[in-house]
Amino acid sequence: MPIFDTAPGLLAITAALAYLLGSVPFGIVMARLFGLGDIRHIGSGNIGATNVLRTGNKMAALLTLVLDAGKGAIAVLVARAFLAEDAVQLAAFAAFLGHCFPIFLRFKGGKGVATYLGTLMALFWPAGIAACALWALTAAVTRYSSLSALVAAALTPAAIYMLGMPTAGLLTLLLAALIFNRHEANIMRLLKGAEPKIGKS
């Protein structure tokens, strides 16, 4: 974990702002803009890009993916521009929490995969590339978005050590634990062979 250099008050402000940014539910916003209805009543009910894709609207899904990833990246980059690495990692964690437990949706949010990948890309791009590659490879082979996320989350903490940023090891372990927690229902469906594949409406 990083050395704590930032004043506690600034850390608290950083966490609050990053959490609020992460709480913006872009899946719901895009679904409404494209006239798709309430995404929470479609498919899996999740607010992320994979469920938006189940509506058949690829542009809405792509925009949701980019914006969900972007809010994690922006939280990290803004914190890095003004504060020390402890605040940067706190911003990453808070933005991820915001997506998973958004105050705007009574703490019922998404599973955090796009925000996780965007956060990693901004935090330490070699680890972000590795995570995206793991996700893409698993998705290409299995066509399961959830399994791809689980594989990427499980292997990224080791990758970030090998690629040269061990101070982010604890952060990636915490994020991986949250991703597994958010995918509990998916894990059960995968074990039963009932998990829907990517692109299934």
Low-confidence stretches: none
Radius of gyration, Cα only, in angstroms? 16 Å
Overall geometry comes to globular
Number of strands: 0
Binned, the helix content reads 55-70%
Could you give the order of the helices and strands? HHHHHHHHHH
- As a percent range, the share of strand residues is under 5%
Give the helix/strand class: mainly alpha
Structure description:
It is a single chain. This protein has ten helices and no strands. It has one domain. The protein is mainly α and 201 residues long. The termini are far apart. The longest helix is centred in the middle third of the chain and has 25 residues, at 58-82.
Features:
201 residues, mainly alpha
Question: What does the secondary structure layout of this molecule look like, with pairings?
Answer:
Blueprint: H1 8-22, H2 26-33, H3 49-53, H4 58-82, H5 85-100, H6 113-123, H7 125-142, H8 145-162, H9 169-182, H10 184-192
Entry summary:
The chain has about 200 residues and is mainly alpha-helical. The chain has helices spanning about 10-20, 25-35, 50-55, 60-80, 85-100, 115-125, 125-140, 145-160, 170-180, 185-190.
